[in-house]
């Protein structure tokens, strides 16, 4: 709710939280609106702050998520973000109102995760979400302060993956049929393994005439087309003829939410001696393409990277081997 402070000419606001008709939030908003009307009629000064304690991080997050949901955007990552806030970030801030937060509070968050050896990628993601949320609050005049206004992302080291093609095949051999198929789809389509891409692909995204699959990537809000080998297209046709749902990857006629648990069990059964995650499937696919001398621009398109430069720099260790193979082709003088 917003109102104009007649003394300063500034717009004030108060956030009551999200609520349906008849909810406590709606009743509180109506009650506060009636108080403002009464004060105007009596000629008394209107409040300079809608909430003496200030809007909390949780309230700001609810407004942020609600805004994205009504905009028709994918909100799965936002639900996960709320969970991260509740379980990890808000406890570190002692429920301090957003307007009273300072950059030193943000540094405390970074130090907390840094000491626990959380990757720079994860820390950057958390802080980026916070920064976007603060900007949203300022734009809607819910808050007045952005403690991350001048924050810059930490340098992210390239992710190291030990997974090899031989070991991936071992993991497949120790996987149930639906997991083995999920691994094969992820590898051939070079997709992010999770709800956003792999398990979201439906049969109507297969382009049989072009021999490939269209994949929407919520992370970049773009779509990519991945051409497939004749052998994989045959497997797709076989799977579709037996499919019990509209999803390419399914289990007993229902889409799969996550393969991490099944993956970890298969890794254990296959006696893989190092830590590996489902993400490594995508990493391995990109590595294999680059190792085989595929043009980095084409690899970037297949991977869904916005810029080939990202592919080249992120997988520079692979290209070092390719350069050695190339230089060996030079004739001697």
Automatic annotation (TrEMBL):
Keyword Cell membrane tagged: no
Keywords: DNA integration, DNA recombination, DNA-binding
Region (Disordered): 1-20
Entries under InterPro entries matching the protein: CB (IPR044068), DNA_brk_join_enz (IPR011010), Integrase-like_cat_sf (IPR013762), Integrase_catalytic (IPR002104), Integrase_recombinase_N (IPR010998), Phage_int_M (IPR053876), Phage_Integrase (IPR050808)
GO molecular function: DNA binding
Residue ranges occupied by any Tyr recombinase domain in the UniProt entry: 158-328
Protein name: Integrase
Naturally occurring in which organism (per UniProt): Desulfovibrio subterraneus
């Amino acid at each position: 709710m917003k109102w104009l402070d007649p003394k300063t000419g500034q717009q004030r606001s108060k956030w009551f939280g999200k609520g349906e008709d008849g909810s406590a939030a709606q009743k509180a908003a109506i009650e506060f609106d009636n108080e403002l009307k009464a004060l105007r009629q009596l000629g008394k000064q209107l409040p300079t702050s809608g909430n003496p304690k200030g809007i909390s991080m949780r309230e700001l997050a609810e407004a942020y998520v609600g805004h994205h949901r009504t905009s028709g955007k994918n909100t799965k990552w936002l639900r996960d973000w709320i969970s991260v806030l509740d379980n990890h970030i808000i406890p570190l801030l002692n429920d301090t109102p957003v307007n009273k937060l300072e950059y030193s509070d943000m540094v405390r968050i970074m130090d907390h995760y840094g000491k626990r050896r959380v990757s720079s990628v994860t820390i950057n993601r958390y802080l980026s979400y916070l920064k976007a949320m603060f900007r949203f609050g300022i734009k809607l005049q819910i808050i007045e302060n952005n403690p991350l206004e001048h924050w810059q992302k930490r340098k992210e080291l390239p992710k190291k993956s030990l997974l090899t093609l031989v070991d991936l095949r071992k993991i497949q051999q120790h996987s149930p049929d639906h997991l083995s198929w999920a691994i094969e789809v992820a590898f051939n389509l070079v997709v992010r393994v999770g709800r956003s891409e792999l398990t979201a692909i439906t049969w109507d995204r297969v382009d049989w005439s072009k021999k490939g699959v269209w994949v929407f990537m919520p992370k970049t809000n773009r779509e990519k087309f991945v051409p497939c080998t004749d052998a994989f297209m045959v497997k797709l046709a076989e799977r579709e003829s037996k499919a019990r749902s509209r999803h390419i990857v399914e289990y007993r006629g229902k889409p799969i939410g996550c393969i991490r648990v099944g993956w970890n069990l298969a890794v254990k059964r296959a006696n893989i001696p190092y830590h590996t995650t489902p993400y490594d499937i995508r990493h391995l696919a990109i590595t294999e393409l680059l190792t085989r001398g595929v043009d980095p621009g084409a690899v970037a398109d297949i991977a869904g990277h916005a810029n080939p430069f990202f592919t080249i720099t992120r997988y520079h260790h692979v290209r070092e081997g390719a350069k050695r193979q190339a230089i060996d082709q030079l004739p001697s003088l």
